[in-house]
Amino acid sequence: MAYHHLALAAKDMKATHAFYEGIMGFELVKVEVAPIMGGGWGKHFFYRMDGNDSHFIAFWELHETDGRDDYVYDINAAAKLPPGTNHYSFSVDTKEELESWKQKWLAAGLDVFEIDHNWCHSIYTKDPNDNAVEFCLTSGTFTEADRQRALDALWETEFKPSPPPAFMQMWNAEKTVN
After folding, report:
1. Is 146 helix (H, G, I), strand (E, B) or coil?
2. Contact 56, 5 (CB under 8 A)
3. Sheet of strand 41-49, all strands in order from the earlier edge strand to the far edge
């Protein structure tokens, strides 16, 4: 079974478009304009990823819906969770590609959090809706011991931390881009 699309509401669709097409390089290919359950109507924008007609990220621009002024677009704030808990991650294949995305985000004025988790290397930023976006490079393989540790953790009730990250740094766009 494969992923088809993730759909989220957008606080500002023009800013969302500028981020996902202008910075992320996803291509806006389709919009569905339709009534919304419960009243009102919406525009559902689909951005194709990597030219694949079966992989999208999509955004709703909502109109005339009840409670619109009270909507929270940051999925963690809406769920009252710590920042970054809910996030979406896109895959890269090389360290060079990960570095390229980091530099692209910094050049666009975005702060970037980088962490080497010892089995994957990630960079994070926020989109215009304050949602955490990640690019991730898998850098390790999984062993039977990794699986057993994960299975054991299902039942643990005390804090048994993983080894610390190999590297972690916040890159501030204002300090790293001239």
Report:
1. helix
2. yes
3. 5-9, 52-63, 41-49, 27-35
